[in-house]
Design a protein that fits this description.
This protein has a single domain (59-404), classed as Hydantoin permease (Orthogonal Bundle), CATH 1.10.4160. Helices cover 70% and strands 1% of the residues. It contains 15 helices and 2 strands. Strands 1-2 form a two-stranded parallel ribbon. Helix 7 (168-184) runs antiparallel to helix 13.
């Protein structure tokens, strides 16, 4: 039998303490990983160690950042923000989404095959104006992604962590921590992501171990009860919020390693875990899953073991760390777009201006559920996804070929 919404327990630990603890742990991870980088610089092998600041990050650690970034979207999945479909359709929709995401990555693979430098560097070699246009398009798309992710977390904070308190201070502190992480760079973000993933795996194992006995598969509806249309809609939405793969052309000069194998593993882990959680909340919550704003968190509320009876508090901490990684990552990307596309030299100023603008917008829209939900729409996400994942990566190789053809014509004349 499905668990009624009235029986679901909510976050009742001290929210201030839990929120501050997560941010402090994140800053501690950055500090201790940088300290380790200095101490271990002479002892570790030079090949792709994440503790060597002068080296590129490996493709594996890049996709670790992308894994946590995309996982945050899955964790904060809002049932009211999507097409209402039967819970048995969700795993099928996510499986289809994984296939569509793999196909949409082909333009980036083609871009990587045709050159070894980043997309803005190659665009600048064609025309500085062309590079500025690409940088502006990336900047607008990622600004929206960062704002929507922040609003997604703001909804979680205002409705679950701080339902009766003003949490503006927490959003401000969160953005400050994210700005600091963005300033430190991809190397530091990847080291923090490694430790966060290790912690998350432990929490996940405990949650899965305690929830297995509470699953009722008769709560799951048969797939395609309402036809294929709802499945296609949720697949397109899930694909459109997977904006992480569009960052690869921008980061070509920052990572090293085999991209195809790492991407395949990323697809497997990201969507495999998301499908697992969709089955969990469908089998445990049943039809009540559609009434919960954060169904995956509602599932975690049911998890407890003899020595720890509030695993949802640990999960909330992991969510905070995941959103910090996502914010750091995209703030860094946007600051580099400003630098490479428009010649802005001061990275701190670029990061600070973008972070401050996002913070102000979040605080202005904080707690407005309808406003936030209006951002989580396929009609908005999908054009941005197609622009950054398909059109922009293809535009540079095509422009390079046109320039070469034009040069050959001139030489022949």
């Amino acid at each position: 039998m499905a668990i009624p919404t009235s029986e679901v327990r909510y976050f009742n630990l001290n929210p201030n303490r839990e929120a501050i603890s997560a941010i402090i742990h994140y800053l501690f991870l950055i500090f201790i990983s940088d300290l380790a980088a200095v101490q271990l610089n002479q002892n570790l092998p030079p090949e792709r160690s994440i503790f060597l600041p002068e080296k590129k990050i490996s493709a594996a650690y890049l996709f670790l950042i992308l894994f946590l970034s995309r996982l945050f979207v899955s964790f904060t999945y809002i049932s009211t923000a999507r097409e209402q479909i039967n819970n048995g359709d969700v795993p099928v929709a996510l499986l289809l989404c994984a296939v569509l995401t793999g196909i949409s990555f082909l333009p980036s693979l083609y871009f990587l095959k045709t050159g070894s430098t980043g997309i803005l560097t190659r665009a600048k070699a064609i025309s500085p104006v062309f590079a500025a246009i690409l940088a502006a398009l990336y900047l607008v798309a990622y600004f929206f992604v960062t704002l929507a992710s922040s609003m997604r977390f703001d909804l979680f904070a205002s409705s679950v962590m701080f339902p009766d308190n003003n949490h503006s201070w927490f959003i401000a502190v969160l953005m400050l921590a994210a700005g600091y992480g963005a300033y430190k760079g991809y190397k530091t973000i990847s080291r923090a992501a490694l430790f966060i993933t290790a912690s998350g795996v432990v929490v996940l194992i405990f949650i899965l171990a305690t929830l297995t006995g509470k699953m009722r598969f008769d709560n799951l509806t048969p797939p395609f009860m309402d036809g294929i249309s709802p499945v296609l809609k949720i697949s397109l939405y899930s694909m459109s919020v997977t904006c992480e793969i569009s960052t690869i052309p921008l980061l070509t000069e920052h990572f090293d390693g085999k991209i195809k194998r790492r991407f395949a593993l990323w697809i497997l882990c990201t969507f495999g875990l998301t499908i697992l959680f969709s089955i969990l909340y469908g089998a445990i919550l049943g039809e009540y899953g559609n009434t919960e704003m954060f169904p995956i968190y509602a599932v975690a509320l049911q998890a407890e073991i003899n020595v720890v009876q509030r695993l949802d508090a640990f999960q909330a901490g992991i969510w905070i760390l995941c959103v910090l990684v996502k914010l750091c990552f995209f703030l860094r990307l946007m600051s580099e777009c400003l630098q490479e596309g428009f010649g802005i030299k001061n990275r701190i100023a670029a990061t600070g201006v973008i972070g401050a603008l996002i913070t102000v917008l979040i605080l202005l829209m904080s707690g407005r559920i309808l406003t936030a939900l209006s951002l989580f729409r396929t009609e908005i996400y999908l054009p941005l996804f197609l622009l950054t994942t398909v059109l922009l990566p293809l535009s540079v190789p095509v422009a390079e070929k046109l320039v070469n053809i034009k040069s050959k014509i001139r030489r022949a004349a």
